[in-house]
Amino acid sequence: MTTTDPALSPRTLARQRRRASVARFWRQYRAERAGLYGLAVLALCALLALFAPLFVGSDVSSVTDAPGRPMQSPSAGFPLGTDQFGRDLLGLVVWGSRVSLLVGLLAAVLSVAIGTLIGVTAGHFKGWYATVMMRITDWFLVMPTLVLAIALATVMSRSLTTTVVAIGVTTWPTTARLVRAQTLAVETRPYIERARALGGGHWHIMSRHVLPNVMPLVLAQTTLIISTAILAEATLAFLGLGDPTVVSWGGLLQDAREAGAVSAGDWWYLVPPGIAIAVVALAFTLCGRAVESVLNPRLGVSR
Amino acid sequence: MTADATPALVEDKQQTAAGPRVRKGSAYPRYLAGKVAGAAVSLLAVLVTSFFLFRLIPGDPVKTMTGGRQVSAEQLAAYRREFGLDLPLWRQFTDYCGKALTGDFGTSYQFRAPVVDKITEALPNTLLLTGTAFVLYTALGIFLGTRSAWRRGGLGDRVNTGLALTLYSIPSFWLGLLLIIVLSVGIGPIPGMFPTGGMESGGKEGFAYVVDVAHHLVLPVVTLVAVEYGQTLLVTRSALLDEMGSDYLTTARAKGLRDDLVRRRHAVPNALLPTVTLIFINLGRTVAGVILVETVFSWPGLGGLFYQALSVPDLPLVQGLFFVFAAAVIVMNTLADLVYPLLDPRVAR
Amino acid sequence: MGTNDQTRSLPRGLRLVAVAGAAALTLTAGLATPLDPAPRQARAADDGKKVLTVAVAQSVDSLSPFLAVRLLSTSIHRLMYEYLTNYDPKDNHAIPGLATKWESSPDKLTWTYTIRSNSTWSDGRQATAEDAAWTFNKMMTDDGAATANGSYVGNFRKVTAPSPTKLVIELKKPQATMTALDVPIVPKHVWEKVSDFSEFNNDKSFPIVGNGPFVLTGYKADSYVRLKANKSFWRGAPKFDELVFRYYKDQDAAVSALRKGEVSFVAGSPSLTPAQAASLEGAENIKVNDAPGRRFYALATNPGAKAKNGKKFGDGHPSLLDQRVRNALFMAVDRKAIIDKVFQGHAVEGEGYIPPRFSQYFWKPTASQKLAYDPAEAARLLDQAGYKKNGDGKRVGKDGKPITYRVLCHATDPNDKAVGKYLQEWWGDLGIGVRLNCLDNVTDPWLAGKYDLAFDGWSVNPDPDFVLSIHTCGALPATPEDTGATDNFICDKTYDELYARQLAEYDPAKRADIVKQMESRLYDLGYMNVMAYPNAVEAYRTDQIKSITTMPAKAGNIYGQDGYWSWWSAVPADSGGSSDNASSTGVVVGVVAGVVILGGLGAFAAMRRRATAEDRE
């Protein structure tokens, strides 16, 4: 063990310990086959989204320079056909991944950030603060999420920010509860007592000791919530509550419906964005479950 | 409901782990009173939210209500008076709460009918859809979840869990649209077998009416079941696996009981207990989560009404519906809380 | 806590699930029964009944003619109640309805209507002038009854019925709409029992007593509206036995239903999409009615909203007050592309304010006047107006900030969003930003003047007076608190003078000439830029409807006519009776569905039984 070497500073020690635990985590994660598949799909999607400007170009969403005629069925030129403006649907689906993934990511980060903040503080400061926070959490928990998100999206103007906020604000309570439980468990450990005795303030304890310990849980939560957020983004866009000028998967489905693609039988307009949503949501769920089962093998969720 | 399915999955494990435990029989009434009081507080909080949240919708409901037709300031003022919108906000709020407590949610702006009437008109339709779907996906989820856990790691389990996870990742509205294309309109050799939307063809009586409604019910129910059963399956499965690691099972096995017998007689029933909580909560959530499926299938339920009310905004109707959606979840949560200790065999009563 | 306890709980836990399931089932089954609307409609067996089913999406706001304002509800009232006058389906001139003839005093202040004696209410009583007088008087005296149509009677001094066939209306000042009083006349003997008109929705007891071509026999919110033919209708009985409006909230579902023959007619809201029309055109037994529309589709510019008392309100962009800017913006709109791409040919390129369907008033800009698509010229105009590009290629306003216009759009109209995307790119090339503000309900920012530009459209009547009047200074709201008749706050002296002149002009040709001058003025001002005249695209099944009257008879539309012509005139096809074959397959599939559901329950029960069997061993 590294602790036997007295020449190492505490900081290096901590870093080494962390590196070791990441390696251990990865070793266990690798055993989860479904999680690996999920990770592979996600990596592929992320690459596609990141490098989309290179192979489809931002003018793929331009309506004035649309290359095809409206609603063309798949052909060599347009492998997935065209939309009602004559834009290349394959390009749009690739391009749409950027917004869908971004919204999913941002919304999940927002949701988890709120949840972690409330969870950690409610676990750390006990008393009336915790009581009030947990009441609020419980109350948000019983709110029908979709209804609340629709209401929020209606109250605010239609933009990506609105979508992110509407999803983030409605999905944080579960994280808050999980994080609080974890915080309570961590704070009973002796070294926290020691840190406190050594004069560590609230901020020090929360940021240096509690947070690193709840991080794995937060990671698992984030992965799971991204999948929820991507579905929620699609849902809001489908209900016409998204920004109509932005290309996202949900927005494409809504466009398809408004153009009458369903009854016209133009399946190529409807099927690819839906599959994209399902695949990415599934990939995130698989990763989240894998992380969860590594952290808590007793759950035996996968394998 | 796609939006909150995953967190609920996690949360429920948490909830059962910290599940309510009642030590003595005499404690139950106090426990019950506490839970009911908590629910009452939640309902009140919902009432407050429903009032203030929707006041944030930009717009003057009276001007919207008159649809931009030429109306004089006096007439607009008269409308405001009629709907009590001329009062200061706090008075509107106290009036609203006072009336809501007596079950009066005011008059819908756009339908000129009591909100309660509009809701009771649509509620049975929503309950018919959610109720049927709920029974089916719960049964299916428990059944497959148990099987999956029994044959953990086998091909059946992998296919089962994989399918559940996949269906669970599919947007319900998209699945609904596909089902309409394939099974309702018909594609290639597949004939259109089911109606494209609505709840009835109209003008049918007696048995023919029931059959007609059942016919309309198939596709929306299939959609709901497909996207919802996965959650029940996964929770049942993991609860069962959790239970199978317990000491008493090892003891039972050590006593020489057959493996499958141990599982069926001891593990399954106990594992089902936590699932009960999930079942109740699901029922409450499905009522609100059905909005999408109702939209796709033109089902004349609460979801469509809510959406329509939001666009006006028809404040009284929006508030009433929001309250109903939230109340469904709260009531079901409370029921779960109340029933759970009664079921838990570890409670000495 | 022994194993025994665990075992005993087995049936208990399962029983709970079973009980919950059973409870839910009973619940749903129980609920299904009171839903049954059938008993209310005692009627003969299904055989040979000719049913005309129309797919609709709009909810009925009220079945009371005193409250209803939505298109569907008022169209249904047309079918249920006879109005004093009707419009000729060919050219829209006023023709007899409940009144057989009418005359006015020379000062146009007293109008005498002769009420027909061959119209009876569906409960057998005669419809008389007394019913009409009562209806109008109620609207004049009861605020609740004036909710929907109060504007028609605001100017009435007195309404009397000296005899059952004679109705006399005295006015305070002359009123143009006296032969177009679109007010359903209701039976006094039924309606005088109503206590509160502001809350009575006329949807509790069926059939509803009426004297129109159809009698309403059943209604369930967002499910259906059912009407049966009035065999004793004075103009002649409708050819179909029944007319059903069925709800499809989703337009694709409605089109699919038409394809399958579940419904006979689909109009779409506002019309079928190009893709739907294209796919239906090739379908068997379906006719797509692609009629020149009576609507114009325009881009309205906020001229700086103000009230009659001179108070300014709203926050329209100041640069738009410059006519050169407005013209430049419109010159950067490629209208041909909008027709080709957005409407895909189901519209006509916009020119003047009034659609070409009304040839009498249709006006085209002269070659020199025309603001043809010319982005280069548009850029030049903007430069000239002082809105130059900055270093980033964005044009800056007088305040030094880059210009971004907020464009108000209807979230429910796909065309608004589609054209909005084009605007973003066209105007983006000019160096001007566009922010689409798409709302379900645009009324509020619109009335408050909180927009820069907005998508606008009106259905034009054969007499253009109304659509012309909404751009006069007189239509502005009295104060910012009032709602005026104005469309988008245009107030122009020249236009107003022309408007007054056309009102006083009795010679049709001369009047038309003045109207064209008004259109020319409106075009130059650039506050109302007409981009297109969309067609009405609707479709029906020829194996269910043999023929149907459009309005106008030549190349007209079917849904949303001024009158009951379409549904009253529709002739069933020989194979007619839409529901018959559908219902037999329906039963078969319904049984299959039942089996599926039972199967699910069976699996559940099987699981339970296995568990108990296990317990017994």
TrEMBL record, chain A:
Intracellular or extracellular location(s): Cell membrane; Membrane
Main localization (coarse): membrane
InterPro entries on file: MetI-like, MetI-like_sf, OppC_N
Signal peptide bounds: none
Record's bilayer topology term: Multi-pass membrane protein
Pfam family, one: BPD_transp_1
Transmembrane spans: 34-56, 99-120, 132-153, 159-179, 214-239, 267-288
Domain ABC transmembrane type-1 intervals: 97-288
SUPFAM superfamilies, per database record: MetI-like
Alphabetical keyword list: Membrane, Transmembrane, Transmembrane helix, Transport
Keyword Transport: yes
Family: Belongs to the binding-protein-dependent transport system permease family.
PANTHER family xref list: OPPC IN A BINDING PROTEIN-DEPENDENT TRANSPORT SYSTEM
UniProt-recorded name of the protein: ABC transporter permease
Organism annotation: Streptomyces lomondensis
TrEMBL record, chain B:
Domain ABC transmembrane type-1: 123-336
Intracellular or extracellular location(s): Cell membrane
TM helices/strands, residue ranges: 31-57, 126-144, 165-187, 207-227, 271-297, 317-343
Domain of life the protein comes from: Bacteria
Keywords of this entry: Cell membrane, Membrane, Transmembrane, Transmembrane helix, Transport
Family label: Belongs to the binding-protein-dependent transport system permease family.
Classification via CDD domains: TM_PBP2 (cd06261)
Region span, Disordered: 1-21
PROSITE patterns, A to Z: ABC_TM1
The protein, known as: ABC transporter permease
Organism whose genome encodes this protein: Streptomyces lomondensis
Gene3D superfamilies hit by this protein: MetI-like (1.10.3720.10)
Automatic annotation (TrEMBL), chain C:
Keyword ATP-binding: no
Signal peptide (residue range): 1-31
Domain Solute-binding protein family: 95-469
One Pfam family from the record: SBP_bac_5
Keywords: Membrane, Signal, Transmembrane, Transmembrane helix, Transport
Top-level taxon in the UniProt lineage: Bacteria
Family: Belongs to the bacterial solute-binding protein 5 family.
Protein name: ABC transporter substrate-binding protein
Organism expressing this protein natively: Streptomyces lomondensis
